[in-house]
Automatic annotation (TrEMBL):
Gene behind this protein: ftsH
Protein name as annotated: ATP-dependent zinc metalloprotease FtsH
Organism this protein belongs to: Lentzea flaviverrucosa
Cofactor(s) required for function per UniProt: Zn(2+)
Active-site residues per Swiss-Prot or TrEMBL entry: E451
Ranges annotated as biased composition (Low complexity): 681-695
Pfam families named among the record's database cross-references: AAA, AAA_lid_3, FtsH_ext, Peptidase_M41
Length: 753
């Protein structure tokens, strides 16, 4: 085993390590050009050493025949097949310094050569050689070119298989078995995907303690499918399983099954599962399984498509007639909707785990994991950074921390501060700042008014996320941007919020029309986003009173194209016209609202533009100062047409959190972990299997959390979320209703347990 060292500097030059020299030598020996040059050199040496014409001086045919006519030739040899004439001159006679001559003659001149030799005056000795090649030589003449072609083909196939003399093993599996020497990843390195970790920890626990599950008749899932957007940590979870499982772990990509040769993919699937069965129990991880597991029947090759045959073999190996247990298949994909239904059914992928974009808590954990070991300054607020990165995946957050470290190193800093983190977020969102770009003063003013229009329109809307930052610094393909950051993670959006987003998007265009009396091309992306939102409101979310709660249009793309190649219109031309009209009405209403906001607060717009030109970037605190007198405008209600379905005047119920905040109490409640609470918790555990008694409703309708400072072993139902001093309802006799007492286990039950 070679030990690699860092290059050492001696005598002003860097000497490479011996292992690197060996690697370069092996790489040189694998070069086919070297072997071709060696063969040509050997052929040259062979022709020089074994040339039978050595010692003969080549001359012209006429000169050789003249020597014969002059009687100066003692011996002559005619080589019929080679059509050569060898002459040995008489003693003491030379021609051009040699007494041995050789010349070539055409086949038609053979008779003339014999005549000249026969009529020579000194009657030289004439010998005729008729050479015949052996059968072996004749066979070699045909076999050598064929062998060279075969060697060239095998070399090409070997390179196509990745080298390593695997040309004859293209039907073997390319799966890599993880060894103990590889870097180990554990579940402690995974953050922001707690539910997925819990599901995978159960599989690890089953492999390590199968008896506990088998006693209950439970079977381990044969397959686990991890699906979610790119960068959410699916492959990282698989590496964590490999580091935690303690069983053989095979890793392979879905594209490794696909090959240009027919039947290779199915052969590799069989070989992979044969290796796994020999090492069962084990885990197989297939990354990007959609490369081989796409919906059948939609490919270009019909039923004999190579990819479909590979999928058929995978289905048989996972849950076929001769399937055996002990093998767990973990797969990852970004597109579960295009996978074949037979692959997703129970018995193959029994468990499908979504790995989504992390929430606020998950982002905090991910940032702490990736910032571990990095020097952070006092103003580096990771919690604030997590709030500003809504929608970021785990890979995006890791890139933010890495970009901040690179920026700090570029500036010769020693700690990562808040400014570096802020800049790294902007780099991830829009790319690096184009500081060298030179723009005119007029274009800078237009950009400032455009972004100020966005910010002012958004600030005046009641149902939109607060504006966090406005900048006119060019990044990527944008000349500036206005960033609004939600205060909390949201999965739902109301119609008012979507209309407010339309107003936000059209604020820049309205500012251009108001100030410069004509629009520019800078609002092209704003118009695209606004049109997309408005059309989705009408065709997907049923937010148009005229068209009703109907979905118009269905995506019916082919699975092999990703199910997104086409969108079929399942409505008439009249409905299409109405859809266009409704979309235009929404955009026009939002455009008018944004214009009115800017007209009302024109002086605020000018103040914001002036500061943007001076500072180029403004944050939330500065925006709060500028927008101090901007009031929230009322909601746009012209689209709130319910017809005969009148909304109720009864307000919605209040959640326990809302009630607690009205009382001035913290929510969620702070549970104090003390040693005195532990015996009570342990005492209540035996009653967990008992049937729950009927609980009385609390006056405020809350249900759920033990309030601090109140006893937890009280009789009757627990007073979850109740106000101070509240007691459970009692029966007329004055005794608590449904008094709870722990049930004492019977002796025979203890024996059975």
């Amino acid at each position: 085993m070679w030990v690699f060292h860092c290059p050492t500097r001696k005598s002003g030059r860097v000497e490479a390590a011996p292992g690197r020299k060996c690697m370069d030598r092996k790489r040189l020996l694998r070069n086919p050009l070297l072997w071709i040059a060696a063969v040509l050199l050997l052929y040259f040496v062979f022709t020089v050493l074994f040339d039978d014409s050595r010692g003969y001086h080549p001359v012209k045919t006429s000169q050789a025949l003249q020597q014969v006519r002059d009687g100066k030739v003692k011996e002559a040899t005619i080589e019929d097949k080679e059509q050569r004439l060898r002459l040995t001159l008489t003693d003491g006679t030379t021609f051009e310094g040699s007494n041995r001559l050789i010349t070539q003659f055409p086949a038609s001149s053979t008779d003339e050569i014999f005549t000249v030799l026969d009529q020579a005056g000194n009657k030289p000795t004439v010998e005729t050689k008729v050479s015949q090649e052996s059968i072996l030589m004749q066979i070699l003449i045909y076999l050598v070119p064929l062998g060279l072609l075969l060697l060239l083909l095998m070399w090409m196939m070997n390179n196509a298989q990745g080298g390593g003399n695997r040309v004859l093993n293209f039907g073997k599996s390319k799966a890599k078995q993880l060894s103990k020497d590889m870097p180990k990843t554990t579940f402690a390195d995974v953050a922001g995907a707690q539910e997925a970790v819990e599901e995978l920890e159960e599989i690890k626990d089953f492999l390590q303690n199968p008896g506990r599950y088998q006693a209950l008749g439970a079977k381990i899932p044969k397959g686990v499918l991890l699906y979610g957007p790119p960068g959410t940590g699916k492959t990282l979870l698989a590496r964590a399983v490999a580091g935690e499982a303690g069983v053989p772990f095979y890793s392979i990509s879905g594209s490794d099954f696909v090959e240009m040769f027919v039947g290779v993919g199915a052969s590799r699937v069989r070989d992979l599962f044969e290796q796994a069965k020999q090492n069962a129990p084990c885990i197989i991880f297939v990354d990007e399984i959609d490369a081989v597991g796409r919906h059948r029947g939609a490919g270009m090759g019909g039923g004999h498509d190579e990819r479909e045959q590979t999928l058929n073999q995978l289905l048989v190996e996972m849950d076929g007639f001769d399937s055996r247990g002990g093998i767990i298949l973990i797969a990852a994909t970004n597109r579960p909707d295009i996978l074949d239904p037979a692959l997703l059914r129970p018995g193959r992928f029994d468990r499908q785990i979504p790995v989504s974009v992390p929430d606020l808590k998950g982002r905090k954990q991910i940032l702490r994991v990736h910032s571990k070991g990095k020097p952070l300054a006092a103003d580096a607020d990771l919690d604030g950074l997590a709030k500003r990165t809504v929608g970021f995946s785990g890979a995006d957050l890791a890139n933010v921390i890495n970009e901040a470290a690179l920026l700090t190193a570029r500036q010769n800093g020693h700690t990562i501060d808040g400014a570096a983190l802020e800049e790294s977020v902007d780099r991830v969102i829009g790319g690096p700042a184009r500081k060298s770009r030179i723009i005119s003063e007029k274009e800078k003013k237009i950009t400032a008014y455009h972004e100020a229009g966005h910010a002012l329109a958004a600030w005046a809307m009641p149902d939109i996320d607060p504006v966090y930052k406005v900048t006119i610094l060019a990044r990527g393909r944008t000349g500036g941007h206005t960033l609004s950051v939600p205060e909390e993670d949201k999965d739902l959006m109301t119609r008012s919020e979507m209309i407010a987003r339309l107003v936000f998007a059209l604020g820049g265009r309205s500012a251009e029309e108001l100030v410069f009396h004509e629009p520019t091309t800078g609002a092209s992306n704003d118009i695209e986003q606004a049109t997309k939102i408005a059309r989705a409101m009408v065709t997907e979310y049923g937010m148009s009173a005229k068209l009703g709660a109907v979905k118009y249009g269905q995506e019916q793309g082919e699975p092999f194209l990703g199910r997104s190649a086409g969108r079929q219109a399942d409505y008439s031309l009249e409905v299409a016209h109405e859809i266009d009209e409704e979309v235009r009405k929404l955009i026009e209403a939002a455009h008018t609202e944004a214009y009115e906001v800017l007209v009302t607060y024109r002086d605020v717009l000018d103040d914001l533009t002036l500061e943007l030109i001076e500072k180029e970037t403004l944050h939330q605190k500065e925006l709060e100062r500028i927008f101090a007198r901007v009031e929230k405008r009322p909601r746009i209600t012209q689209f709130n047409d319910f017809g005969d379905r009148r909304p109720s005047d009864i307000p919605p119920i209040k959640t326990p959190g809302e009630l607690a905040r009205e009382r001035g109490e913290p929510w969620p409640p702070i549970v104090e972990d003390t040693l005195d609470d532990e015996p009570e918790t342990q005492q209540a555990e035996p009653a967990a299997a008992e049937p729950a008694t009927e609980a009385l409703p609390s006056p405020n309708g809350s249900n759920g959390v033990h309030q601090p400072g109140q006893p937890s072993n009280q009789a009757g139902p627990p007073n979850y979320g109740a106000p101070p001093g509240w007691t459970p309802a009692t029966v007329p006799g004055g005794k608590p209703h449904n008094v709870w007492e722990p049930k004492k286990p019977q002796p025979d039950q203890d024996e059975r347990q």
